[in-house]
Structures are given as C-alpha cells and as structure tokens.
Amino acid sequence: MKKVCLILSIIAITLPTFTQENKYQEAMTSTIEALDNASGPDEYLECANRFERIASAEKTLWMPYYYASYSLVVMSFDEADGEKKDQVLDRAQELLDAALKLEPEESELHVLQAFLYPSRILVDPMGRGMMYMEKMFGSLETAKALNPDNPRIYFLEGVNKVNLPPSMGGGIELAKPILEKAIAKFEAFNSNDPFWPNWGEEAAKAELDKLQ
Fold first, then answer.
1. Model pTM?
2. How far is it, in rounded angstroms, from Cα 134 to Cα 130?
3. Where are the alpha helices (DSSP H) in 147-194?
4. From its phi and psi, is residue 169 left (phi > 0), alpha (psi between -120 and 50) or beta?
5. Using an 8 Å Cβ cutoff, are 63 and 28 in contact?
6. Distances from the Cα of 147 to the Cαs of 12, 143, 193, 211, in angstroms?
7. Residue 169: strand, helix, or coil
8. Do the domain assignments include residue 181?
9. How far apart, in whole angstroms, are the C-alpha atoms of residue 106 and residue 99?
10. What is the SS3 assignment for 135?
11. What is the pLDDT of residue 14?
C-alpha cells in the first residue's frame, strides 16, 4: 500500500510538469507551422504575438523569444515606411536581447542579429550602410566563433557579399564559394530539436542559381 501511495505521489508531482511541457510543444509546433505559411505583415505580426505569449509563459527558454523576433524581422522587410520599419525592428531587438540574456553564447541568436541589421540599412542606405554592414559582419563572426557549422552564417555572408562591390570585399567571385559552403553546411546540419531554426537553405540555393 505504501508503494502504491508513493507511485501516486510521484504521478501527482510530475503530471503538471508533463502537462506544461505538452502545452509548450503544442504551442510551438502550431505557431512555427503558422510562421512557415505566413505571407504578409499581418500574419507575421500574429505569429510574433503568439511566440511572445509563449515566451511569457516559458521565461527561461530562449527559442520563443528568438522566433518572436525573427517573425518581426521578416515582417520589417515588407514595411515601406522607414519610421514604422524602425519601430518593428526596435521591438524585434528587444525580444532578441531577451533571448541573448538567457543564452548569450547561442550562435543562432547572433545570426538573427546579423539578419536584423540589413533591414535597418534599408531605412537610410547612405546614412546607415557602413555602420550596420560592419555590425552585421561582426555578428556573423561571433556566430561563427560559437558554431562554425551553423549554415545560416554562410548564407547571410554570401548573400551580402553578392551585393557589395569588390572594393569593399564583395562581388560574385567571392560570394559564390561562400554560398556553396552554406549549402554544404545545410545538407550536413542536423539537430534533434524539432523547433531548431531551419530557414535559409532554399534561399541560399536560389541565390547561388542566380550566380551560375
């Protein structure tokens, strides 16, 4: 009888934990699916809000903050008004900062930081270009030092070098092998976490095809 009571006590203690974990898994799965299918600012904003609600419930996990920020960064590229774009990016930065506070040595977070900066540049290319380009490549170097096998590092590096003149360390000849490396890294990359970021591979292939 004592053994039965002990088992029931253990179940009573662990059941809420399993229930909470299941809620997190379900919320992340459905919201990532919505993000994958999002096609406009309103849908990206809704995804960001949903991820932020998950982050509020799971304050010790960096990934919901990451996805909330990522959703807003993607949304920002569709915003034509510079002031509104900056407002969206300000919030994306706040969410990214929250994730970095939890996991400062996560390569993916520094890649996302690098992904955020080009949208800042678009607000004022002449005034912001040099400053944010330097910040972007700095973030990629940090990400590379933390995990040189992260394929998104080379994807962003290659894409941005395509658009830089050779005098600034860019050009097709330099960008092409970096994009090829990105694709090889994507093909080799493997994570046991079903929620791990997986964006960039198709875009890297499309960008490389343009250079052939």
1. 0.88
2. 6
3. 151-162, 172-188
4. left
5. yes
6. 40, 6, 16, 27
7. coil
8. no
9. 9
10. helix
11. 41
- CA angle 103-185-94, nearest 5°? 30
In angstroms, the CA 204 to CA 197 distance is: 15
Task: Tell me what pLDDT residue 13 has.
Answer: 40
Q: How far apart are CA 96 and CA 156, in angstroms?
A: 18
Helix 2-37 vs helix 62-76: angle between axes, to the nearest 10 degrees? 10
Domain count, the chain: 1
Q: In this structure, is residue 211 part of a structural domain? A: no
Q: d(Cα 197, Cα 187) in Å, to the nearest integer?
A: 14
| Residue range of the domain that includes 59 | 14-120
The tens-digit pLDDT sequence of the chain (212 residues) is 544 443 444 434 443 544 567 899 999 999 999 999 999 999 999 999 999 999 999 999 999 999 999 999 999 999 999 999 999 999 999 999 999 999 999 999 999 999 999 999 999 999 998 999 999 999 999 999 999 999 999 999 999 988 877 767 778 888 999 999 999 999 999 989 999 999 999 999 999 998 87
Does 202 reside within a domain?
no
In sequence order, which residues have a C-beta less than 8 Å from that of residue 151 and are 6 or more positions away?
Answer: 182, 183, 185, 186, 189, 200, 201, 204
- Asked if the structure places residue 108 within a domain, the reply is yes
- Tokens matching residue 177: 């092998």
